[in-house]
UniProtKB/TrEMBL annotation, chains A, B:
Domain NAD-dependent epimerase/dehydratase per the UniProt entry, residue ranges: 3-210
Source taxon at top rank: Bacteria
Coiled coil, from the record: none
NCBIfam families per record: ErythonDh
Protein's UniProt name: NAD-dependent epimerase/dehydratase family protein
Keywords: Carbohydrate metabolism, NADP
A Pfam family assignment: Epimerase
InterPro entries, per database record: DenD (IPR050005), Epimerase_deHydtase (IPR001509), NAD(P)-bd_dom_sf (IPR036291)
Organism: Belnapia arida
Amino acid sequence: MQITILGGGGFLGRKLAARLAHEGSLGGEAISGLTLFDLHAPPGIEAPFPVRCLGGDVADPAQVATAIPEGTRVVVHLAAVVSAQAEADYELGLRVNLHGTLAVIEACRRLTQGPHASGATPPRVVFTSSVASFGGGQEARLEDDARQLPGNSYGAEKAAAELLLQDASRRGVLDAVSLRLPTVIVRPGRPNKAASSFVSAILREPLLGLQTELPVPEEFAVWICSPRRAIDWFLHAMAMDTTPLGLDRGINPPGRSATVGKMLSALESVAGPEARALVRHAPDPAIEAIVGGWPASFTAERARRLLGFSEQESLEEIIQGFIEDDLTATRAERGI
Amino acid sequence: MQITILGGGGFLGRKLAARLAHEGSLGGEAISGLTLFDLHAPPGIEAPFPVRCLGGDVADPAQVATAIPEGTRVVVHLAAVVSAQAEADYELGLRVNLHGTLAVIEACRRLTQGPHASGATPPRVVFTSSVASFGGGQEARLEDDARQLPGNSYGAEKAAAELLLQDASRRGVLDAVSLRLPTVIVRPGRPNKAASSFVSAILREPLLGLQTELPVPEEFAVWICSPRRAIDWFLHAMAMDTTPLGLDRGINPPGRSATVGKMLSALESVAGPEARALVRHAPDPAIEAIVGGWPASFTAERARRLLGFSEQESLEEIIQGFIEDDLTATRAERGI
């Protein structure tokens, strides 16, 4: 089967590509080819199947169509402008997060329903939506049918894109699974423009021996997941039977609600008090205004009981996972 | 104040324009000019202020910008491709219902935040969303925070547009009030491509002495409002204080839940059994598949108690209103 990863050069895209290369198959079927598409062509990877690496604009329908050739069975759409950046640059956020998704729908429609359509099975589209598409804040513990009332442009664009993907699924244009990802920790690399960047930084930077700042109080709770679990969820969403989803293509996967204080305690238990001491309190109202609106918890019953998405590890296991998977590469990348 | 009505040539747009011309003011302030924009330039109207009539494409940002000139204080965005048509022509629905709203946002952004912006107060944008943006069906009685999970493209496009307008309001680009209109009865003119067209037809056609078909059973319930009340709601939404709305710009106005059987009884009480006898049962699964998914009832507490939207009349008053306001013109238009 042919697979395309849009945003294939990003942190999760690269991990997913590596995992696919390692497995060689998906849902018991051999992978015949993989396309990695990002703003700049992602580096090639070793794989038991051909890998195409393309650079381009996800909001340009023609370029996205090239990235989703005839025969594509699965598209993983990770390409996005992150929260603080979408807030700062409205046009860019709309362009990538909304028009990018419209381009994906258009590309799939060309395959399944266009004038030259091959009558193919609607491709599975795994879309990364976000916890930021909800409101509710620290007090919230959202049910699966909670309304998306986002307090940030990134979340609004993601929620709008979900609606369009859900409708395209109903029409048989594609077969969407929209995962509202929790805040993924521990992200490797450097701090980025996501408002939630600090949630990874307070764990990653001390593990690198670097000081970092905590912009919110320690009792601040965040709905999180690990990169390992995010990849497990993607693989599950890429191959699962979507019949039980019916009309509702939005899934709140089983993340974990944890306070920043608990994360720092887990850091201390894994890496000692000297690691924790590298985290300095530096309140930032702009960051808190964005992340403070995101719900701190979900019931996630549908994903857990009906749809078979795997549970989250403990905070200690999440930190250990970063040390095993990403610490060395992050050191090298940052010259530490 | 300058006002623009997009979709100003349609049934509700013309009624609203006539009402504004009659009143001469809105919220105690004199109207200084009115722009009516539609696919074809709407006919001019008599008014105590200048009226511009423009024809154009609501999905073309340049044309919409022309329709929303500097100094515009209120935009009423009624331009839409209706439900059955958006279902039949996916591209057209997306273009008008989604990209049309994006063009409105862009035009308002040029006024308030663009490089040549005058720093104007964000214009009020009254957007007609729809009951079709919800699911739930006959059993539903939806709360104000119900999730929009539409089972039709029209509803998905409207719900996505609401999200984008809500976000643009939060950003100070505009000041949106999105009214999820019930099925408006009795519509004048001819049957149209809305899946709900029959709800008006079963009352209008008999009043014209014509036979008509009922595609659903008599116990089928619909969430309805009258044209008179819809216009009252528009006027209220155009001038209301939006502070109590906060982030949530979507409003379920206080419509009425009525079965088709009750509507036919009201028809009989107003126009006699011979009128009712003109309605013939002719089940249509395609129509029922669309309208059957729309919720039959809403609590509408927020609109009613917090926001001051007016209540619905009785079914008999709604029918009487059609006879008084629209029957003669409909006869003339259709040469009956």
